[in-house]
Each structure stands twice: as structure tokens, then as C-alpha cells.
């Protein structure tokens, strides 16, 4: 999956040197009628399935490449959906 976003500076309570990848609204414009519609829900489901795949996640940006370990938290997706989706 490809996500368009921007790198933001660290937040006040972050460790030194931390940065954030900000990708608001899964790439939809704030006024887009598809925001939170069926297309958005499908993209959100694909993203959650990617995180739930049990595979490490490789992030590539500019000249850097980072590998994040697979999510290893029982029932995280169910709990996430109950609280956030």
C-alpha cells in the first residue's frame, strides 16, 4: 500500500529525535464526499488487514527504509474496532 503524507516534527512528550508520519483521512481531502464513505471504509479495512497480517511492515521514504515488527497483541483489531472504527 502507498500512503501520501508528510513528516512532522516530534511532539512535546516524544523521545528526542522522534518524528511522525501524518497521513490524515487516508489521503482524502477534508471536503471530499467519499471521506468516511464506502471507498474509505474499504481502504481502512485493507490497512487494518495489512497490520493484522502477522508480517513485518517495511516503510520506505526517500532514501530510508525501516522495518517494523509484526503486531503481536492478541485481539488488537477487534478491540481497535470497538473503540475507534
Rounded to the nearest angstrom, the distance between the terminal CA atoms is 20 Å
Structural class: alpha+beta
Number of domains: 1
List the uncertain runs: none
- Could you give the count of β-strands? 4
Describe the protein in words:
The chain has 85 residues and is of the alpha+beta class. It has one domain. Helix content is 27%, strand content 19%. A two-stranded antiparallel sheet has the order 1-2. Strands 3-4 form a two-stranded antiparallel ribbon. A hairpin with a 2-residue loop joins β3 (57-61) and β4. It is globular, with a radius of gyration of 15 Å. The two termini are 20 Å apart.
Task: Give the SSE map.
Layout: E1 6-8, E2 20-22, H1 38-51, E3 57-61, E4 64-68, H2 76-84
Antiparallel strand pairs: 1-2, 3-4
Brief account:
The chain is α+β, with helices and mostly antiparallel strands and 85 residues long. The protein contains two helices and four strands.
What descriptors fit this protein?
single chain, alpha+beta, two-stranded antiparallel sheet, 19% strand, globular
Amino acid at each position: 500500500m502507498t500512503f501520501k503524507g508528510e513528516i512532522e516534527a516530534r511532539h512535546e512528550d516524544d523521545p528526542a529525535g522522534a518524528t511522525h508520519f501524518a497521513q490524515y483521512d487516508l489521503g482524502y481531502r477534508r471536503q471530499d464526499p467519499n471521506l468516511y464513505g464506502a471507498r474509505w471504509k474499504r481502504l481502512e479495512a485493507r490497512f487494518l488487514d495489512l497490520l493484522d497480517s502477522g508480517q513485518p511492515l517495511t516503510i520506505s521514504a526517500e532514501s530510508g527504509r525501516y522495518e517494523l515488527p509484526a503486531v503481536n497483541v492478541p485481539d488488537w483489531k477487534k478491540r481497535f474496532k470497538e473503540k475507534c472504527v
